[in-house]
Design brief:
By secondary structure, this protein is α/β, with parallel strands linked by helices. It contains twelve helices and 13 strands. The strands form three sheets. Strands 1-2-3-5-4 form a five-stranded mixed barrel.
Length: 426
């Protein structure tokens, strides 16, 4: 290796890595002002400190990004890998690694910001024209007989709409007017259907809507042509687009906004259910009144019949028969009671006699004697021998209790429970 030329160092043309990196950082920060960058999120890492690190990439390059805790806490977009976003920030250099990165200050989902801005601008312009004023809105018919639903015939929204009307036993007529609800030409097609439905003159109420989706999916309901057609329609309109949190400009232009298509079905059938309930209550009240009047007439007739029986001679005879039956029953009850008391006294006397009898005492003492005999029997030598023991006796038949008491050659007798065995001491 060729040694470094000291003249280069002395001239100041040689820089340290730190100095060089710091110059690059100053050039980048001075030459690139804060800006918006579009790309796809990848390598997302959320640290315990609250800082968020990720890469922003497109087909040709990749950019390291960091969003510090304070900025991350203010963002409404939930980051995930693969999300298309617009980020705003300034370039910086992490000197320890010599790596440049984008310090992210704000972030929005790509497409959402532009559409939301268009939404607000058109909303303000149409509102200024009075298109959303309350005095332009028509009241909904209480009991619409024919309802038209402008929606996609294959979507889940129309199925939920029909199911709720059927569950509530709504008896009106529903006509599904099929239309595109998303994509190019959807707004124009729905606006044309609105004008056609109004011209036919068959509908008491119109519903326009679809199921939920992103702001892009629902954008057809924000297009000016459809919003103006909804506001100008002479038939009352319910706007039922998306979920509860979704708002479109058709919601403001329509006569009534329903949170969901299912909510529109409930709104249409609510007054019908109320009328059916009132009719059921009226029918029930009429039945109760008729039943009450009939019962009152029946009671009055029974009262008159009772008075007629009391005034007839037959009633006196019947009363005497009842009194005779009552006396007969009382006499029989008295005899049964007397017999029962005598029987109970006899049973009591027998019980006392049985308790004073010596037989029970004899049985008790017999049991005690048997228990003592069993204990004596279990302690007898014969019982011990039966358990596998033996008694060693000398020639005189005396028991030998200790091994020291015998002598070598001494004859002994081992007594078992089933016989004796003669042995000699070794």
């Amino acid at each position: 290796m060729k040694p470094a030329d000291p003249s280069l160092e002395d001239s100041g043309r040689v820089q340290s890595v730190t100095d060089f990196t710091r110059r690059v950082k100053e050039l980048l920060k001075g030459g690139l002002p804060p800006c918006w960058v579009q790309g796809e999120v990848s390598n997302l890492r959320a640290q315990a400190s609250g800082h968020v690190y990720f890469s922003l990439k497109d087909a040709g390059a990749q950019l390291s990004c960091v969003m510090f805790r304070g900025d991350a806490a203010r963002q409404a977009v939930k980051l995930r890998d693969g999300l298309q976003v617009l980020v705003y920030g300034e370039v910086d250099v992490y000197e320890a690694r010599g790596q440049y990165q984008l310090i992210t200050r704000a972030l929005i989902e790509h497409g959402t910001g532009r559409l939301q801005q268009e939404f607000e601008q058109l909303k303000q312009r149409l509102a200024a024209e009075g298109l959303f004023d309350a005095d332009r809105k028509q009241p909904l018919p209480l009991l619409p007989r024919t309802v038209g639903f402008i929606t996609s015939p294959t979507g889940a929204a129309v199925q939920d709409f029909i199911r709720i009307l059927q569950r509530r036993r709504w008896t009106g007529r529903l006509v599904v007017l099929p239309a595109k609800v998303q994509g190019e030409g959807a707004a124009a097609e729905m606006a044309a259907l609105l004008r056609t439905a109004e011209a036919l003159g068959h509908f008491d109420l119109l519903v326009i809507g679809r199921g939920g989706g992103s702001i892009e999916d629902l954008w057809a309901f924000n297009e000016e042509s459809l919003v103006r057609a909804v506001a100008a329609c002479g038939v009352p309109i319910i706007s039922a687009v998306g979920h509860e949190i979704d708002y479109t400009l058709c919601d403001f232009a329509a006569d009534v906004r329903a949170e969901t298509p299912s909510g529109a079905a409930e709104l249409i059938s609510s007054h019908y259910l109320s009328c059916v309930e009132r009719l059921d209550n009226a029918g029930g009240n009429l039945d109760d009144i008729a039943a009450t009047r009939l019962e009152q007439a029946r009671q009055q007739l029974d009262h008159l019949r009772s008075r007629l029986r009391l005034l007839s001679p037959t009633a006196a005879i019947e009363q005497n028969h009842l009194r005779l039956d009552d006396l007969r029953n009382r006499l029989a009850a008295a005899l049964r009671d007397s017999t029962s008391r005598g029987r109970q006294a006899l049973v009591s006397a027998r019980t006392r006699l049985a308790s004073a009898s010596p037989e029970k005492r004899v049985q008790l003492e017999s049991h005690r004697l048997l228990a003592l005999w069993k204990r004596l029997e279990s302690a007898s030598p014969q019982s011990v021998l039966k358990r596998g023991y033996a008694i060693v006796r000398d020639e005189q038949g005396r028991p030998v209790a200790r091994a020291q008491a015998v002598k070598p050659g001494q004859p002994l007798v081992n007594e078992f429970h089933d016989g004796q065995v003669r042995v000699r001491v070794e």
